[in-house]
Amino acid sequence: MKRALNQISYQFLKPATAALVLLVLLVALVACETRPAKYEKILTKEIAEQFLENANSVDLSEFTAIENAVVASLSKHKGALGLSGLTSLSDAAAESLSKHKGTLGLSGLTILSDATAESLSKHKGALYLNSLTSLSDAAAESLSKHECWLSLKGLTSLSDAAAASLSKHKGALNLRGLTSLSDAAAASLSKHKGALGLSGLTTLSDVAVGILSRHKGDLYLNGLTSLSDAAAESLSKHEGWLSLSGLTSLSDAAVGILSRHKG
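Below the sequence we write its predicted structure tokens.
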């Protein structure tokens, strides 16, 4: 009899236990789905006012979101604005920030609308947009109007049309994230007036090197590990500072050729 009762109890408890486990799992799943994917730290008016009173009292880069009404106040700050914690920016906020004068860090943005690019192009000061991995031709055309240091080192590729637009940019241009460059894009960028950072390129054809050697201004090609004698001959004619710190092999002839470079 006792054995029979134990069997009955086991048979009854087994499905009950399974149901309980299932219920616990469902509760946990619902909790995960309703929990915010990422904790937002909002830059409020009160915090902005504290920053404006003492810039060293607040680290703006800690904030992942900002109230639109706050941006107008911050844009009046005379000095650097490090807002690289922001992952998105409304067109209205971008328009307000365009009036800021000084270094503006927005390297948390991974997407840039054409309207936002147009607004930011009017900003007076260094502009950092280092998390962008792509740039529309329209956005590139807008940013070409920006007149100061422009850092886009998150870009891994650039269309020929975008390169043609950015070549018109007046100021240092950081494109060190590019891993490849067409001859057409190289031809456009060679016309850029200002420092040009292309240290993400690990290989360049002699033709591409010849084209880039026409660039007038500082040229950074620190990703290259080797250079042919023909390429060295082209770069020796470059006018401006030339950085090739990544080279690990260079023929004696190339060394002699590059020694003629003036910059």
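Confidence is low (pLDDT under 50) at residues 1-13, 20-37.
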